[in-house]
Amino acid sequence: MGKSTLFNRLTETRKAIVNETAGVTRDRQYGKSFWNGIDFSVIDTGGYVVGSDDLFEDEIRKQVHLALEEADQILFLVDVKTGITEMDEIVAHILRQQDKKVLLVVNKVDNHKLRLDAAEFYSLGLGEIYCISSTNGSGTGDLLDEVVELFKDKPQEEELDIPKFAIVGRPNVGKSSTVNALLGEERHIVTDISGTTRDSIHTRYNKFGHDFIMIDTAGLRKKAKVKEDIEFYSVLRSVRAIEESDVCLMILDAERGIEAQDVSIFHLIERNKKGVVVLVNKWDLIEKDTHSTKKYTETIKERFAPFIDIPVLFTSATTRQRIIKALEEAIHVYENRKKRIATSQLNDYLLEAIEAYPPPAWKGKYIKIKYVTQLHSQTPTFAFYCNLPQYIKDPYKRYLENKIRERFDFTGVPIQLYFRKK
Ligand code: GDP
Fold it and tell me: Going by C-beta distance under 8 Å and a sequence separation of 6 or more, which residues neighbour residue 79?
């Protein structure tokens, strides 16, 4: 119908999180986009509704309200071939009554004649129209220019050099209980500072000798009634919390083990290049023997592979077991994520490791890595300068990553390696 095609176009520069994230149903999607140096997220509020007119209208209203609650601006997609439908009128009516920026996108404008037809959509009273053809891509560049315009004006939040933590995990694993065990009744003791997005609260704490910010996206949420909606909100919430954090405390339920949704959340953290500490919560409920933690840790690493250099703690929010340890571990990971290794130290060590086990030649060509340096970036990123960067394959990249991890402590932090021509 066009909406998914547009979604895919907007998110094609990045691998969309689509479908992979549990709770995001077939026709509701969430993905990342990047245009003119600006990162933003795209939400497809979902599907087409069949049923009686009443049901239909209800469903549309729900989707529009979801978009209004979740998004900074709204792309309202209409179809030039069908012209203005009754549903378009309903949506336009709702959109005219609120303050968020709305871009009226007229789709399927594949030729000049249709471009003239598209003018009828001015009558919806939503201002400028953006004609696109999501199949051939025309117009999407102009649309994206306009989309990022809104974000350009936003002043950059000044970054405090204080760790930002988010507690994430499936519903019921013990997120709120863990926050309460950690912060107790003294929540909000220090100051509330405004978050980077509208609907999350960043609260600064000073507890157990540490200064840190907890990102709280829960508790603000509306009264979704349908299970699917609740899950969708919960996924969006996790995504937000992850994006705004430095380190995530990812909670698992010891009794339930690792489920697909846990793996998706973990991958979200990894893909956003955030630090992570895994807490296996409700450990008080488990019958333990001497090998329990070891076995559990192994299972976690198997499921979360290949990123397995992660701290795993066995906690109980109920008995407060290892709750402070969890905070300390999160701070340790935060330090690791900020760490910078001197170039000389890096080269002394890695060039030797490379000499001991050089990259395999490719089609008779020798690959020579000459120089390594850590780039200035938010997360640990290393650039390897070499003659034939394109021929360095994943297994060798993993070897180098492991070497870096063996020597320098980057536990809990995804690291990136780039290979550049020198
Ligand atoms: P959330 O949805 O992830 O925030 O989970 P909650 O914190 O609301 O906890 C869900 C349920 O698990 C509640 O009934 C808690 O009392 C219980 N719970 C949470 N942590 C623990 C724990 O460490 N041990 C036990 N036995 N129960 C827990």
Answer: 1, 2, 85, 106, 107, 108
Nearest CA to ligand 1 atom 9: 174
Q: pLDDT at position 68, please?
A: 80
Q: Which atom of ligand 1 is nearest to the CA of 180?
A: 7
Rg (CA), the chain: 24
Q: How many helices (H) and strands (E) does the chain have?
A: 12, 15
| 130 alpha-carbon distance from chain centroid | 28
Q: Out of 167, 170, 172, give the residue to mutate to test ligand 1, the one with the largest number of ligand atoms within 8 Å of its CB.
A: 172
- CB under 8 A, 24+ apart: contacts of 219-226: 222/69
Pocket of ligand 1 (CB under 6 A): 169, 171-177, 281-282, 284-285, 316-318
pLDDT digits (tens, 9 = 90+) for 101-154: 999 999 999 888 999 999 999 999 999 999 998 777 788 888 888 888 888 766
* Ligand 1 centroid – CA 256 distance (Å): 12
Expressed in angstroms and rounded, the spacing between residue 163 Cα and the centre of ligand 1 is 25
Q: Whose CA is nearest to atom 18 of ligand 1?
A: 174
pLDDT tens by residue, 47-61 = 555 555 666 677 777
Name the band, by pLDDT with cuts 50, 70 and 90, for residue 224: low
CA 134 to ligand 1 centroid distance, Å: 45
User: Coil, helix or strand for 51?
Assistant: coil
Q: Residue 400's closest CA among 374, 362, 364?
A: 374
Nearest CA to ligand 1 atom 25: 282
Q: Cβ contacts of residue 73 below 8 Å, gap of 6+? A: 100, 101, 102, 103, 147, 150
Whole-angstrom distance, CA of residue 11 vs CA of residue 18:
10
* Residue 177 CA to ligand 1 centre (angstroms): 5
| CA 285 to centroid of ligand 1, rounded, Å | 11
What is the structure's pLDDT at 191?
36
Residue-level pLDDT at 2: 62
The string of pLDDT tens digits covering residues 16-40 is: 333 334 334 445 666 777 777 777 7
Locate the ligand 1 atom nearest the alpha carbon of residue 315 and give its number.
23
Which is nearest to 292 in space by CA: 312, 268, 309, 264?
A: 312
- DSSP 8-class letter at 390: G
The answer to whether the pTM exceeds 0.85 is no
